[in-house]
Amino acid sequence: MGRFLQFVKKETLHILRDSRTMLIALLMPVAQILLFGFAVSTEINNINVAVVVPQWSEGVRQNVEKLSANPYITYKGALTPNEIDHYLRAGLVDAIVVYANDFDRIMNDWRQNGVSKSAMQFIMDASNTNIAQAGAGYLSNILAGDMMSASSMVETHMLFNPQLKSAFNFVPGIMGMVFILICALLTSVSIVREKETGTMDVLLVSPVRPLRIILAKMVPYFGLSCINLATILLLARYVLEIPMGNNLWIVILVSLVYLALALSLGLLVSTLAKKQVVALLISAAVMLLPIVMLSGMLFPIENMPAVLQPLSAIVPARWYIDAMRKLLIQGASFGPILKDFVILIVMTIVLLALALKNFNDKLE
Predict the structure, then answer these.
(1) φ, ψ for residue 45 (rounded to 5)?
(2) Binning pLDDT at 50, 70 and 90, where does residue 338 land?
(3) Residue 160: what are its φ and ψ, rounded to 5°?
(4) 20 to 30 A Cα–Cα from 32, which one of 98, 142, 288, 302?
(5) Quick one: pLDDT band at residue 262, thresholds 50, 70, 90?
(6) Which of 90, 125, 153 is the last residue of a domain?
(7) Domain count, the chain
(8) Model confidence pTM above 0.85
(9) What integer is the mean pLDDT of 22-46?
(10) Of 138, 130, 8, which is closest to residue 75 (Cα–Cα)?
(11) What is the span of the domain harbouring residue 306?
């Protein structure tokens, strides 16, 4: 253990002496969280919608049929009032339409006498501002139709993000991208640098086992990433004013697993590359672009071509970003993000096993 700690100390001192690495590692997350936190929304082509109908009538049936027939809407069926909160928090639906008990009578009064009264309510999941903004407009056009002039006949409720702040949508995405860059990119370059200078061969012939050498080099970057996690959470809470409930420990737990995953990915890249420039190219092509394009950070996964949606499932950031949106914005408990958490753990184990196997093969 003493030799292991000496290697950790050596790598930590090396990072502290490298001012460029420290600048990238500590200032890049702050710059990105502030810049992307106020990004504009993107177009939405598919919204998952369910309905709550206290009493079915001919008018309600026609209205629901109009909803389910629209190509921009995926109809998820009818719910009970008690299921509304569960379906929204679990991410099973993006919006819920609640019809009034006397929907037909309200509609007849409006047509005959011009009397306007609330005939339906739109309950939106505003943790994703893109979907919430587009969903409210789509539902109003589809269901309200010529009632749009009588605005009091439709009530809209935005949950989780009532102000529709775009920062709420992008903070989880920036977290997913920054941690991959810091952990994987810098770790892979660090190990490849040892190969280029020849010091890796010296380390490998030392009495310390190769696995401990690699882990010792990862520990300082894990510490840097923990500092970035604390910085991002503080900025999100006090600068971007994202509300955080009592599930902060779950956020930290999932983030630590994601950091371990990113470190394992960096180790895998380091076993594949022989030069720093190659490691940078692999990191940019294999990690950065898929994170931006396929993780749901900028573009909803439901809007992607069918052939790309399964491909996005192998992008680790997709599952981390989905979990962070549910935890930070929706205030969800551990249950709704259990699937994301398990997938991240499995990916971490697989990447670490592949990296160690490849590393040992090259030693032999």
Answers:
(1) -115, -5
(2) very high
(3) 75, -35
(4) 302
(5) confident
(6) 153
(7) 2
(8) no
(9) 61
(10) 138
(11) 2-40+165-362
